[in-house]
């Protein structure tokens, strides 16, 4: 009888630990808190280290698809380096997103300069952010691609918590 009770308790403990472990794994709908460092060409572009960690819900499309997929199944304390190709991040550069706009359409008081970031609105009221690529005599060439479009991204992540 002692043997049967012991085996039953042992099996219940194993099942409990297995379920508890699965509850801590990153999966659809779980709230994930993590620290990350984003690098492009081995240069740090962004980091949460030393700041507020990033918290998001897995499967909510808040973070880029390639990173979200790579984090699936990780547990708190896990550290991982994830390389995300452009097509699973911000996409490839779209040449049609580079447009020439007459200077007189610019509402800013500032003198336009190459590298300046502009926020504009489409005819439907949607906000768009672009970077001035070229300043011509009567026009501006503005790139509305995401600044990280066309780039391979390397993330170093540490999972802090999963709920």
Helix-strand makeup class: alpha+beta
Largest sheet: 5 strands, antiparallel
Number of strands: 9
The share of residues in helices is 10-25%
CATH class of the largest domain: Alpha Beta
CATH topology-level name of the largest domain:
Chitinase A, domain 3
> Could you tell me how far the N terminus lies from the C terminus, measured between alpha carbons in angstroms?
39 Å
In terms of DSSP E residues, the strand content is 35-45%
Low-confidence segments, given as residue ranges, are 5-21
User: What general outline do the C-alpha atoms trace?
Assistant: elongated
Protein architecture, described:
- With 163 residues, the chain is α+β, with helices and mostly antiparallel strands.
- The chain folds into two domains: 24-90 and 149-162, Chitinase A, domain 3 (Roll), CATH 3.10.50; 95-143, Beta Barrel (Thrombin, subunit H).
- Helices cover 18% and strands 36% of the residues.
- The chain has two helices and nine strands.
- It has helices at 2-23, 65-71, and strands at 31-40, 43-47, 54-57, 79-84, 98-102, 117-121, 127-135, 139-143, 153-162.
- The strands form two sheets. Strands 1, 2, 3, 4 and 9 form a five-stranded antiparallel sheet that branches.
- β7 (127-135) and β8 form a beta hairpin.
- Mean pLDDT is 88; it is low at 5-21.
């Amino acid at each position: 009888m002692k043997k049967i009770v012991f085996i039953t308790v042992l099996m219940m403990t194993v099942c409990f630990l297995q379920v508890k472990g699965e509850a801590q794994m990153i999966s659809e709908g779980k709230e994930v808190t993590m620290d990350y460092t984003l690098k492009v060409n081995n240069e740090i572009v962004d980091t949460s280290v030393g700041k507020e960690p990033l918290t998001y819900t897995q499967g909510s499309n808040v973070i880029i698809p390639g990173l979200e997929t790579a984090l699936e199944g990780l547990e708190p304390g896990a550290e991982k380096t994830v390389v995300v190709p452009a097509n699973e991040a911000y996409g490839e550069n779209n040449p049609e997103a580079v447009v020439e706009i007459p200077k007189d359409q610019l509402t800013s008081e500032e003198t336009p300069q190459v590298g300046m970031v502009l926020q504009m609105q489409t005819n439907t009221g949607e906000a768009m952010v672009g970077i001035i690529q070229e300043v011509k005599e009567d026009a501006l060439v503005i790139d509305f691609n995401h600044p990280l479009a066309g780039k391979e991204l390397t993330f170093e992540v540490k999972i802090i918590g999963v709920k």
